[in-house]
Amino acid sequence: MTPPILILRDIDLSFGGTPLLQGAALSVSPGERPCLVGRNGSGKSTLLKIAAGLIEADGGERFVQPGTTLRYLPQEPDLSGHADVMAYVLAGLAPGDDPHRAAYLLQQLGLRGDEAPAHLSGGEGRRAALARVLAPEPDILLLDEPTNHLDLPAIEWLEAELRGLRSAIVMVSHDRRFLSNLTRATVWLHQGETRQLNRGFADFEAWRDDLLQQEEDERHKLDRKIVREEHWLTYGVTARRKRNQRRLGALHAMRQARREQRRPTGDVKMTVTEGGLSGKLVAEAKGIAKAYDGNTIVAEFSTRIQRGDRVGIVGPNGAGKTTLLNMLTGVLAPDTGEIRLGANLSIASLDQRRESLDGNITLSEALTGGSGDQVSVAGQNKHVISYMKDFLFQPEQIGTVVSALSGGERGRLMLARALAKPSNLLLLDEPTNDLDLETLDLLQEMLADYPGTVLLVSHDRDFLDRVVTSTIAYEGRGQWLEYAGGYSDMLAQRGRPSQEDVPAAAVKPKTAAKGKQNNSRKLSFKDKHALEILPGRMEALQAEIRQLEGVLADPAFYGRDPSAFDAASARLTAVNDELAGAEEDWLILELRREELDGNFG
Known about the structure:
Number of domains: 6
Largest sheet: 6 strands, mixed
CATH class of the largest domain: Alpha Beta
CATH topology of the largest domain: Rossmann fold
Distance between the termini: 64 Å
Strand order of the largest sheet: 14-17-18-12-19-20
Structural class: alpha/beta
Number of strands: 22
């Protein structure tokens, strides 16, 4: 077995209060690919900095094999002090490293090298930092959130690049797909301690859940034993005081162990504040287009978004995802085409850059709007400290200014603000940035239960697969196409690489029912599926209508239970509306199918 080239052993670190790390360990051999996972605030980035030699632990040992080269990618790269990006990247090379590789990596990452560091976006700064740490091809790469602010093409390029390196790589990331594709071992940082699974991240979550269940079972057993011992203490200690002092001492020791036993950190409790129901139609776009300075951003795009849809928008940075989102919600008028918005829309949004957060206000002011100590959530007032706890903030943070929060804390704060606003349409622009895996799970559950509509811009492939019902994907040269399902479904239906390099004249948009453009010679997968299930749906709705009409025909029903009568009447109206919509959808699809069969059959 190859000896490790990096060892962290019995690492302890405290910042005044509860220890952050207690006996943490990490061992890395040549070519190994472990990921470091854990809740936000569990110490992952800190342990990575200790491994990089940037922080000195309170106790424990750090060993790096002599002659080993190591590079560290921080969450927030600092490019200050360098004339341009190329100078920044070249400064990371050691004597004998190839400067041509630095130029190659910058070109692959879409940078020229002459950009001024002060004018870079977050994504461009991340690309420059990646070029700097990848160029030397070190023995060990320590990567802290390498996919943050990268678009999908860059993430997929990075995966391919890392697979081809000989380097050992330790990764911290919230991107499940990235970790599953690259890792071969998983180190779980939990309650200050590390536990290792000698398999990649794809097997981690089931393993972690088993361990947490075992811990809960052990706590339950300890609780039951304490109850038994307390019963004995109350009724039996007098007669056996001298003989049983040791048993009494054991009870006190168990109580102390129970007090000191560190429970798992809390869960984010997400409750969305619902606005009134929107109309069945949320937005309809017919042939919308937008261009800036002769550059086509959106070309002749049509879609129909209905209440309850979860629509993902994907594409490279600069493709126009936010422009398309703004047109679909009426914020930006198209150059040509028509946008029709539904009735009674209440919109809540989460912006990508957290720009709506004033860094000078406190956490409390950000949640309450600066008035009082109450937050209105789901129609009820809640004390700001209680609402903070729902999002894993501590009471003592109530006066913390926003600028002092970590990236993950700012992300949770933005979610807390967005979810407290009454809405029936959620606009989420890169909501997964800086969120840990458990918080992502809870956000996914909340979105699944949300009765309104969701428009989501994201580069997180796993999140898209778990959340969205359809995906609008950039196809190049201003062309956008909508696919049924998530990101993986989109790739399967596309069956080819992106059309980014295909001439615009060669790209023919699709036409689907409900106004979606599609000149293909067959119905889309989504439309075929709808044609198969709509007859059964209509039959079920007709049966429910007959049943409700029978109930309401009882002349004594209203006198017996007025509230039940009103509920049944309202349900009958709603079901009739659903049936009318289903019949309209089926008719449009059936006419489309007949047209295609007649033209091409």
